Amino acid sequence: MKIENSLPILLLAIPLFFMMQIGHTSPVEEHVVSYSGFQVWTVATNTDEERSALLKYVQLYVPKPFQKELGKKLSEANITFVIKIADLKEVIKNENANIKTSTFSKSKSAHNMNWTSYHRLADIYDYMSYLAATYPSLVSLINIGSSYEKRPLYVLRISNSSSLCSKPVIWIDGGIHAREWISPAVTTYIIKQLVEVSANSKMLFDVDWYIMPVMNPDGYEYTHVYNRLWRKTRSMTSSPSCRGVDPNRNFGFKWGGLGTSTNPCSDIYKGTKAFSEPETLATSNFILGKANQIKMYLTLHSYGQSALIPWGYDVAYPNDYNDMLALAKSAVSKFLKYKFSVGNSAALYYPAAGGSDDWAKSIGIKYSYTFELADTGTYGFLLPASNILPVAQDFFPALGVFATKVATLKI
């Protein structure tokens, strides 16, 4: 979810070209983006004015030729900064270091999935298909539409009931933002636990699950092939040199409000209208068709280690905020390894209109949350694959708290 907005020029008196905001622009021609020589800097804020202007903090992706001058200008402005990543290219190279040795041939197994590596979309979809074929009494694979580049949008229904409308539902999605690889990894781990681990069968007694591991498959594939830090979809825009819409600014509640942009080259570009993207439109239509049954909406992002509660479009609170807060705190109490903050989205981070969690809440889904997974900024979007299992294993017990609550709700 984190965004890297350009620092206000008047505040810092730094030329815009120092703010190398990765993902803000991308030529239509496909080419591999190199991060050789780049560093990641975190800029701290000291005053309320700075916090307001900088959205509490900013990360800069700084190319080598500008590092000395930018550091000087920040120091002259008495702005504290820390070099979080000294060699961005090396971190990206090592993020998925085990991919060649940890995956195995399909000739030996029906799928390639594991949770020691980040996987391409084909592996994730093959795993979903495998589960549907292997556990037909528990798993249904649903194609809810196609992405801009015509990739299928798959949702997995997990239920021990043949009736489609007999139980309340928990919806979980991941991969809205392409570069947040830990999100699809954790959603697929949840799927594995619910389907393949018999000890968790109790979590299917009174609740059905609909899980969409990758809502933005075009962007996700693009991060694996061309630009690791791409965030948006891959649709064409009015700008010939910039593609994509931020899908988490494209949902139809308070669309176009605070924390969005009309600039197609921005990472937070809202699109030409609400649900302009086939991915957000297909997802919202599917959820609307089951809105009476879906009692909880969980969307997994990274990074920040926070459980965020609507509203996100501004610092505003729904009438049942205290109920939502109490349940989120109960769920987060199950985390042992990672400490999570809990609170209102806009208050803990920044206002951001058009988010999926706000939209889900607006259509009557009582419990709607965004979870920003690990870490808190050491690696950020580039969390090494060695963290997948620790993050996923720490997160999963919280779902038991949610399932217990949802099971008490009538449809």
UniProtKB/TrEMBL annotation:
Residue intervals of the Peptidase M14 domain: 117-406
Q: Which Pfam families match?
A: Peptidase_M14
- Record's InterPro entries? CARBOXYPEPT_ZN_1, Peptidase_M14
The domain of life is Eukaryota
Which residue windows are coiled coil? none
Gene Ontology CC terms: extracellular space
Question: Which family does the record claim for this protein?
Answer: Belongs to the peptidase M14 family.
Task: Return the protein name.
Answer: Peptidase M14 domain-containing protein
